[in-house]
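Record type: ASSEMBLY
Status: queued
Input:
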Amino acid sequence: MKKFYLITPGPTPIPPEVAAQSALPIIHHRTHEFGDLFDQVSQGLKYVYQTKNDVFIITASGSGAMESAVANVVNPGDKVIVASGGSFGERWIKINTAFGATVVAVKDELGQPVNVEKIREALKANPDAKAVFCQHTETSTGVVNDLKALGEIVAATPALLVVDAISGLGGEELHMDDWKLDVVVAGSQKGLMVAPGLAFASVSDKAWKVIEACKNHRFYFDYRLIKKSIPNKETPWTPAVTLMQSLRASLGMIKSDGIENVWARHRRLAKATRAGMQGLGLKLFATNPCAVLTSAYLPSSVDGNKLVDWMRDDLGVSVAGGQESLKGKIVRLAHMGYMDQFDILVGLTALETGLKKFGVAVPPGKGVQAAMEAFAAV
Amino acid sequence: MKKFYLITPGPTPIPPEVAAQSALPIIHHRTHEFGDLFDQVSQGLKYVYQTKNDVFIITASGSGAMESAVANVVNPGDKVIVASGGSFGERWIKINTAFGATVVAVKDELGQPVNVEKIREALKANPDAKAVFCQHTETSTGVVNDLKALGEIVAATPALLVVDAISGLGGEELHMDDWKLDVVVAGSQKGLMVAPGLAFASVSDKAWKVIEACKNHRFYFDYRLIKKSIPNKETPWTPAVTLMQSLRASLGMIKSDGIENVWARHRRLAKATRAGMQGLGLKLFATNPCAVLTSAYLPSSVDGNKLVDWMRDDLGVSVAGGQESLKGKIVRLAHMGYMDQFDILVGLTALETGLKKFGVAVPPGKGVQAAMEAFAAV
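Status: finished
Output:
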């Protein structure tokens, strides 16, 4: 017997009552029943996005949703600004480059949020920029960006603000409309507590004009076709129906808790996780840490890849290590979606056990003690 | 209490033991466990495709897989030949047009298979054609095309043969390698008996050279990125893991039955369905009917849309009507995937009940009688 714990930033644990929905007999996607499902999911997504706009439902990974934003906005040869502070910022650069855009990359040090002033300057220096691309939370480093400030700056220009909220949506505070975000993409397997396979995009009125004028080749991800299907309560292509059945259930849970309470729960988990990791003697990595993921440096004596593998294979506890240049150097504990305080304590004690295994002297229970103090304080 | 019967060409019924796999706790897609899942699914897909080539696993609807074939093969301005005999042939035209190709459309009358001689002539008249696009089975009409003959003709030219086997794979006989097919795309929700959300593509060596040289913008659907991930037993983007868990189970069922027996079962169901529909006094629609779907004209006095709606809403039996110019005029019973002889009898008796409701005099049980005779004969 071995129990498994998923403390990773996507996939995230799926509530049993949500998972069970995916095992029910499938319904046909051109029926009244599907229309009801489509309606309920659409309403729930608007609520989580905090938007009055339609939220497009796409059958794809999050990366497909990212591509959809580029494919609908950027013509080959267009100039775009990408604010990149990690692997997912780099993904915006790769997709824009693949689609023939001229990319002005505004890079921040790993672990630092997007520098809002540098974006203001980049927009001044590049008044012809079609869009600014950024992350809500950069999953590879655990940083949250100041979308409200970025929204203000970009709204004053003709450019669009395109946000990857894949790891943030449903955990980290987000107000699409109030913050003047133009395109926001997300995925099902993070804060929305569903298996991967569904992706989402919502667009502002300002963005819609750009999308309608965009001449880029597109079909599967064409927002114009997706929007045309909405009055019929359907998607243009056969959607991942069983995942939508699950999503209806998880969106119901979020609505019933209230999105502000969901954000507050994530903040509380984040605060305790940070305290716990510091209690273990680790130095936090992100200077502007998000509510959905906590990252910390590992002692240089520890090979983080081996640590993460050992924790998964021997303890049954999956956490995330570092990616690319951070490979082996940091550890990341997710608290995204279907997570409560006990999951945090599992993560911290597993990390304590792992550190000890790899030769780091950790006083027993120090991480949990610090986390419990933090929980008591909020 | 109401029971529901899905006798439609996608989604198709999902075996309970397959559906249950999607409700199990999700596994992380960057682990050994996922590597095993990836391996098992890949082997099973190669078997169903009857190919030695890799089969790419894509998180998308079947239309996404169709787009992937165009995106990886066709440069803007390239000339392509599309053999179209229904809605899905038209989809090849739309996607190619959206991607800037010059389309030579070789259209066949609805209900007729692709005219192999017309394709030979089109290739002679257009020696610069990059590819010929066609369907394995055209779901909108119930026709199966002679892929073996098309494969011979196209193989003798520099063009590629690109096949949409979305509704055919896993039901209708297919030998990708022996029949010299260059790109074959498919989806999870038809003969493979899984919910929608996964799509597949396999490419020949001849096609791979074209794909590597193709300059078209692509990222999410880029076969080069997908192929590069295969040695790591993973997909470049987070895949629909729970659907892959289900797919492993359904591919296991197909392997255990033997693909030749699966094809034979579909042929037997098709033969009985055709006999049953004729027993009901209906005239068959397709001149070269496929093994996965049977289509028939409705009496002109019957509004097919109303008939199909009534059968679904009152009897709980979902069958398909006609699409576009065939709307209201034909009825389609699917026998695709998880279907046995009793499903056929449900479909035929429901259709008999519906016809009677809409004023057609049908001798009770005539359809089933004819079907039972056909079952007895094979």
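Annotation: Chain A has 13 helices and 14 strands.
Annotation: Chain A has a mean pLDDT of 97.
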